Fold this protein.
Amino acid sequence: MTAASRSDLIIFDTTLRDGEQSPGAAMTREDKLRIARQLERLGVDVIEAGFAAASEGDFAAIRAIAETIETATVCSLARANERDVRRAGESIAPAPKKRIHTFIATSPIHMEKKLRMTPDEVVAHAVKAIELARTYTDDVEFSAEDAVRSDLDFLVRVFEAAIEAGATTLNVPDTVGYSTPAQWGERMAALIARTRGAERVVWSTHCHNDLGMAVANSLSAVLAGARQVECTINGLGERAGNAALEEIVMAVRTRRDVFGVDTRIDTTQIVPTSKLVSTITGYPVQPNKAIVGANAFAHESGIHQDGVLKHRETYEIMRAEDVGWSTNKLSLGKLSGRNAFRSRLTELGIDLASEEALNDAFRRFKDLADKKREIFDEDIQALVSEVHEERVDRYKLVSLKVCSETGEVPTAQMVIAVDGVEQSAQAQGAGPVDAAFVCIESILHSGANLQLYSVNNITSGTDAQGEVNVRLERAGRIVTGQGADTDIVVASAKAYLNALDRLQQPAARAHPQHEDV
Ligand code: KIV
Ligand code: ZN
């Protein structure tokens, strides 16, 4: 059987690696573990858990994922050099199923300007890295970075050498999001037809979305014989992002007549996974985003609604409940006790290791239940995101009073605790949120620039919690902070303080693609 005739499509999720390369989307070890557990529930085949050589923190996060995940393959990225491959191999060692993904750039511009290597040297590095990777695991993936701008004959040469060296998956990336669907399909078909040994490996595609064609290009590669797609939840990723997992999965499922392949994904977990990734990374999902946008299944026009009520298929090609829009699930109420709270956390796959963290989360739950009658799963996910097991927040909001009246300049009075010591301020602003931020800055003088501010409701209704995302930049470093509360000014102050807290933490980590091998 050739790779092209197999009917299973491997879903390789790189939210925790390529997705994390989005500005301000850096995640903690706890965050990554929560997402990895949810990806396993979603049924992805491979979780690219990170780039082990980036930092000690990245290594530890991959290791923790490798110790936790049972059914999916855990993968670490490595540049084609000895240190990276060894770090990757060590990081995934505890996983029942493990993969090393090594890569090197193959386009003339990358070889000359970034690597300063000849094509022969590039092939030699790739072969050595793959052979070393095979000493750690039988499952080795090789990527030719910037394959889209690489010479086809050279790609064939590199891939043949990679197969000889023991690679089991060959990945063809459109690193810069330059291709078009027809070209990408042609390239995949030509590589499969011309590479000696092509039938012994799985062909994979990895597309970026700079021209908005990542999903279309990936699907075109599938039609041409690719049997692995690399993608991320919500299309998160560098610049304009990667191909969106939810769109790939639902496209091949809904149009099986066209693609003739299927995945192992439990599609009812798509929306919960999308919400979790959005909450943790602070990257909101646009309302009209396919599959996971709030409007994706909403019918505005009266004519459409009438059609849908009479006969669903008139305007719907998928069912909302099949992708997990079973509306917000009522989780707990004001009278729910600690045991009920703990079991709901377990059902949601949230594992707060210490009693202290559990107590903190329960206290937050009780505070929220005092303000809001019904607590949904999304509320619990948001409040757990504010509980940190690994570190103590330096800045805490103690109290906030805002005065906002028609015709008057809004004012805010605030008390925050800085390393446990309370400090207060009063300030005016263009609006109540601005006044709150001016208060914080008058105490902390952070020197950070506000790059993005957004508010989204976590569930529906005017008593819903508002989730605020704040992106700050200082000296080229970008961080995102989140805060949730039924009062959006309080949520905003929490988000701003959370972002400042993240700016305090060390950030030294290597970027896999911006540095030489
Ligand atoms: O976009 C890219 O080329 C990558 C590689 C590391 C696979 O992310
Ligand atoms: Zn990429």
